[in-house]
Specification:
Monomer. Its main location: cytoplasm. It is found in: Cytoplasm. Belongs to the class-I aminoacyl-tRNA synthetase family. One of its GO terms (molecular function) is arginine-tRNA ligase activity. The structure is a single chain. The chain is of the alpha/beta class. Among the domains are: about 5-85, 2-Layer Sandwich (Gyrase A, domain 2), CATH 3.30.1360; about 165-285, no CATH class; about 420-600, Isoleucyl-tRNA Synthetase, Domain 1. The protein has 20 helices and 15 strands. The protein has helices at about 5-20, 45-50, 55-65, 90-100, 130-150, 165-175, 200-215, 240-255, 260-280, 300-310, 345-360, 375-390, 420-440, 450-470, 480-485, 490-510, 525-535, 535-545, 550-570, 580-600, and strands at about 30, 40, 70-80, 80-85, 115-120, 155, 215-225, 225-235, 315, 320, 335-340, 365-370, 395-400, 405, 475. The strands form five sheets. It has a four-stranded antiparallel beta sheet. Helix 6 crosses helix 7, helix 6 (about 165-175) crosses helix 8 and helix 18 (about 535-545) packs antiparallel against helix 19. The longest helix has 25 residues, at about 260-280. It is globular. The mean pLDDT is about 95. It binds arginine. Arginine binds next to loops. Arginine (ARG) binds next to loops.
């Protein structure tokens, strides 16, 4: 099944080819002037330029041949040689009817499905779950839904940050607060008991507390002459020995000290339980809950291998891989395999993870949905993987994204300037959604439980749509008031649009109206059918460029096209002939189906009513 845009491009391409020209020239796109045409083609312009012929002449030659196609109604030559193409109502009717029965809702499928690994989430054990990881989770989830929908076999991995200095730091913290725990005995050889000595709250308190002790100075903000001034002052909490204690504990943990491993396992489990709950709330599922630590078992083998092949070399006591290339325009620091203290870090665990995945999942492609500020890190890791021969660097892609800022233009914080916890962030959005629903009076007479469920869905739609509708790589300002609004290009607007169609369906059912054959007559019907046709191309582009905002744009334009259709093409009104009602109802059904499919791809669930 193909969309009309593709069908037309192929057929127009054949026309160009029959004239000894390039088939590529037949490429059409949706017209910017829907009043004049459905599609436009600039091929004659290009061909004219290439052959040093008047483009209008080329256009005049091509136009009748395209017009002769059975699914084309008319072709006009405009301006210096543009082709303005209108497809037949029959073709649009058939296409809309297809969307209604197609399991893909007209979204298409990839030709050759691949095994795709998606590394996103990237939450850290014990560190507060902050907004940067939320973006990764939302964008990554949308991409995993999109890739799966189009037929790829996707495995998603949260890649928990569970292996750095923060682990040693926590061990130190717990050892000071609960020194009597058996885990600290050097010869601890007990099993891993089921009861955790620490809760998530403990971890979230301990981590910043002990991280604070590692800093000699802290920054304080004072207000002088109405301006805020930042000053460095000696940190009263500073404890000189903490860093080295944490380093030793980390090294011992990595070397396999049993008590530390058992305690560390508790940290990971407690964090994972909390995260799984929050991801559940967000409607995000990961196939794998692996972490940086899973690469650990492979690291001795990797270091041996790379040393023996002289890929890793000794430099100032550290084992590094030189990855710079002649074509480099910027500085390319070496890849750090083992540092001068003998410890492995973020580079090494990522390289180990690549080898692990190569062996267990055999991906054709791996996407890393991680903050754009880590671009250098991934460049280094990918080059090292290529040099080592563990993975082809073309099969590894960093999908970077910008920061989510507060209204002050700075990274989103709590009102007090602290790191905003994911849980609190979502609660704030839910409160705001509840407020908004109350103001509008929506669902005022529904049971309390249903109202709460609607508010939750509105909040998540607001957060996800706001995030995904931006060009991924850009920073954006998170404005809760604006995003929870039911007007404008927002998630709640789209939910409302979908719910309106659902309520229309219910009323049509009550009145015994049944969907029937689609007949395109009004210009609003034509516009809606063309929009339904555009889903396939929208998904294709979003897929190729890894840009969920393309899906957002599509669902938004679809909702708008439906809105004009709804105003001008009544279904329930008395006096409308039965077959017209039946046709319009079928168009509405196709719209709802595609709208829900599109919203699903951006992780948004619609309530039955609002
Ligand atoms: N935990 C890391 C951080 O907070 C992100 C992990 C991203 N994924 C990866 N394979 N490096 O920065």
């Amino acid at each position: 099944m193909t969309d009309l845009a593709t069908k037309l491009s192929v057929a127009a391409g054949a026309v160009f080819e029959s004239m000894g020209l390039d088939a590529e020239l037949g490429q059409v796109r949706r017209s910017d002037r829907p009043d004049l045409a459905d599609f436009q083609c600039n091929g004659a312009m290009v061909a004219g330029k290439r052959a040093k012929k008047n483009p209008r002449e080329v256009a005049a030659e091509v136009a009748p041949k395209i017009e002769a196609l059975d699914f084309v109604e008319s072709v006009d030559v405009a301006g210096p040689g543009f082709l303005n193409i209108k497809v037949s109502a029959q073709a649009l009717q058939e296409r809309a009817a297809q969307v209604l029965t197609d399991p893909q809702s007209g979204g298409g499928k990839v030709e050759t499905p691949r095994h795709v690994m998606m590394d996103f989430g990237g939450w850290n054990v014990a560190k507060p779950m902050h907004i940067g990881h939320l973006r990764s989770t939302i964008i990554g989830d949308s991409l995993q839904r999109l890739f799966r929908f189009l037929g790829d076999d996707v495995v998603s991995d949260v890649h928990l940050g569970d292996w750095g200095l923060q682990m040693g730091l926590l061990i130190v913290g717990v050892s000071e607060e609960q020194p009597d725990l058996p885990y600290f005995d050097a010869d601890f050889d007990g099993e891993y008991p089921s009861e955790s000595p620490v809760s998530m709250d403990d971890l979230e308190r301990l981590y910043p507390l002990y991280a604070g002790m590692m800093k000699e100075e802290s920054v304080v903000e004072t207000v002088e002459d109405g301006k805020s001034v930042f000053k460095k002052v000696p940190n009263p909490a500073y404890r000189e020995e903490i860093r080295s204690l944490a380093q030793t504990a980390t090294a011992d943990l990595q070397a396999g000290r049993r008590g530390y491993r058992a305690l560390w396992k508790h940290f990971c489990d407690v964090t994972q339980i909390g995260l799984e709950r929050e991801c559940g709330e967000l409607g995000v599922k990961f196939d794998l809950w692996k972490g940086e630590s899973d690469a650990n078992v492979l690291l001795p083998e990797i270091t041996e291998d790379l040393k023996s092949r002289n890929i890793a070399v000794l430099s100032e006591g550290a084992w590094v891989i030189h990855i710079e290339r002649e074509s480099d325009k910027k500085d390319m620091p070496p890849f750090m395999l083992v540092n001068s203290q003998g410890a492995v870090g973020y580079h090494a665990t990522d390289l180990g993870t690549i080898l692990d995945r190569k062996r267990t999942n055999k991906p054709d492609l791996t996407l890393y949905v991680v903050d754009a500020r880590q671009a250098l890190h991934f460049e280094q890791v990918f080059r090292a993987a290529q040099l080592a021969g563990y993975e082809n660097e073309d099969a590894l892609e960093h999908i970077g994204f910008g920061t989510m800022n507060g209204k002050d233009g700075k990274p989103f914080k709590t009102r007090e300037g602290g790191v905003l916890k994911l849980y609190d962030f979502i609660s704030q959005a839910k409160d705001k959604a509840r407020e908004r629903l109350e103001e509008t009076g929506m669902g005022a007479d529904y049971p309390a439980e249903e109202r709460a469920d609607i508010a939750d869905k509105v909040a998540l739609a607001a957060i996800k749509f706001a995030d995904l509708s931006n060009v991924r790589t850009k920073n954006y300002v998170f404005d809760l008031d604006q995003f929870v609004a039911f007007e404008g290009k927002t998630g709640p607007y789209l939910l409302y649009a979908a719910v309106r169609v659902k309520s229309l369906m219910r009323r049509a059912k009550e009145e015994g109206i049944q969907a029937g054959e689609i007949k395109i007559e009004l210009k609003e019907e034509r516009a809606l059918a063309l929009q339904l046709d555009a889903f396939e191309t929208a998904l294709k582009l979003a897929y190729e460029n890894r840009t969920p905002h393309g899906v957002c744009d599509h669902v938004y334009t679809l909702a708008q096209a439906f809105s004009s259709f709804w105003t001008n093409a009544p279904i329930l009104k008395a006096g409308v002939p039965d077959e017209v009602k039946a046709s319009r109802l079928a168009l509405a059904q196709a719209t709802l189906k595609q709208l829900e499919a599109g919203l699903y791809l951006i992780g948004i669930e619609t309530p039955e009513r609002m």
